[in-house]
């Protein structure tokens, strides 16, 4: 039983949405194209960290289905339960990635699909830097977000009250570069989730490689 008062805001929202989130975003061609980009570049049996792994679909399912070793981390117990059931060949942990220790160089790739939006800007920047250190040199990081210049914006997402913080697109790219990543491919799209309360949203997908320089700071 989860103590409702001690859940993080993100856990409360995504516990409530559960499998509805997957259905609403299943039509994303940009997400599928992003996974294709990653799968074409991973060596056999790569170790991949999926931050904010949600229901495990499409990301962990595609990676594990291609024979890669996936560790999914999500703060929502409901999402972790669904992902563990839907992608039994993956490993899923219920944890807040902001506080989870990460070993340097442990992963060949890291995915962060829409998992930063309930973090402060300082937390988002600090996390990306930590994720870069968790990549082996030359490892790949895919970062997708909603590139809006907003801080603590109170909105409604698929019927749930949410507080959103993000960066404008140019600042997301600058954050990635400042963290020691080379941006190899960048895609901006508008996407409307399949849900009665959904509105069109801008989405930015950055496909990056850890370069040779140490992250600053
Ligand atoms: C918008 S959903 C995206 C799910 C999946 N990445 C996808 O694209 O289908 C964001 C996910 O990130 C998780 N999340 C948000 N903040 C988190 C945190 N601090 N630590 C771990 N997971 C987090 C949420 O619980 C949710 O499942």
Gyration radius, to the nearest Å?
16 Å
- Strand portion, in percent? 25-35%
Cα separation of the termini: 40 Å
Shape: globular
Report the average pLDDT across residues. 94
CATH topology: Rossmann fold
The CATH class designation is Alpha Beta
* Residues in helix, %: 25-40%
Placed side by side, the strands forming the largest sheet appear as: 3-2-1-4-5-9-8
Number of domains: 1
Overview in brief:
The chain has helices at residues 9-17, 19-25, 29-39, 59-65, 77-86, 121-133, 169-178, and strands at 47-51, 69-74, 91-94, 107-113, 135-145, 153-157, 160-164, 181-191, 201-210. The chain is built from 7 helices and 9 strands.
Structure in words:
- The chain has helices at residues 9-17, 19-25, 29-39, 59-65, 77-86, 121-133, 169-178; strands at residues 47-51, 69-74, 91-94, 107-113, 135-145, 153-157, 160-164, 181-191, 201-210.
- It has 217 residues and is α/β, with parallel strands linked by helices.
- The chain has one domain (4-210): Vaccinia Virus protein VP39 (Rossmann fold).
- The strands form two sheets. The chain has a seven-stranded mixed sheet, sandwiched between helices. The chain has a two-stranded antiparallel sheet with strand order 6-7.
- The N and C termini lie far apart (40 Å).
- S-adenosylmethionine binds next to helix 1, helix 2 and strand 2.
- S-adenosylmethionine is lined by residues 10-11, 14, 21, 25, 52-54, 59, 73-76, 79, 96-98, 113-115, 118.
- GO terms for molecular function: methyltransferase activity.
- It comes from Streptomyces griseomycini.
- Keywords: Methyltransferase, Transferase.
- Residues 48-139 form the Methyltransferase domain.
